[in-house]
């Protein structure tokens, strides 16, 4: 069975070295020389693993991986980078990478790390959109639509909606929203949440047949097609 790998690497010599070695070992390899092409390929078809250079043009490797994980693409990712400092390795892993190999590297080690990642689990079905009823958020383009109508949201409103969509049909509390959407570890005792919920509700509910965003008295909020 063919093992499919995506290599995102802009250095021609390094790319040729890795491509040659992987193909000799029976891998089917796609190559992208910049981050935007890498993001497109990684979301357009399934791979068993991704080898991602940190410093690629167009969109850097960290940004690409964060976008993939936000879109729930769970393909194992091996970072390949000349940035060898501990802090840089930690950044790569926290962004969603599964392993980190620093340059210069030996091909045998790269191959062994890829084999290990693929043994843990290959590419899983990926979700690139979140939905609740006829309300949809495209995780790649960040476009929000309801019943085919585009809804323009401010960045914080978009983050709030994404959190609600990921927890749709469940009650989310003020504390959950403060910690996950605003990164507050305390309640500022302001109308911050109420104001943003009110603005979001107007944008996603006004003009539509049935409301989606409900207030649960004494508990919080719930995004659901049913009252």
What does the model show?
- By secondary structure, the chain is of the alpha/beta class.
- The protein is 40% helix and 22% strand.
- Strand 6 and strand 7 form a beta hairpin.
Helical amount: 25-40%
Taking all residues together, what is the mean pLDDT?
A: 89
Q: What is the helix/strand order? A: EHEHEHEHEHEEEEHEHHEE
The tally of beta strands, per DSSP, is 12
Question: In CATH terms, what is the fold-level topology of the largest domain?
Answer: Rossmann fold
Tell me the span between the first and last alpha carbons: 49 Å
Keyphrases for this structure?
227 residues, Arc Repressor Mutant, subunit A, Rossmann fold, four-stranded antiparallel sheet, 40% helix, alpha/beta, 2 domains
Layout: helices, strands, pairs:
Blueprint: E1 3-8, H1 12-24, E2 27-32, H2 35-44, E3 49-53, H3 61-70, E4 77-81, H4 86-95, E5 99-102, H5 107-120, E6 129-132, E7 135-138, E8 144-146, E9 149-151, H6 155-166, E10 171-172, H7 174-180, H8 192-205, E11 213-216, E12 220-223
Parallel strand pairs: 1-2, 1-3, 3-4, 4-5
Antiparallel strand pairs: 6-7, 7-8, 8-9, 10-12, 11-12
Helix pairs in contact: 2-3, 6-8
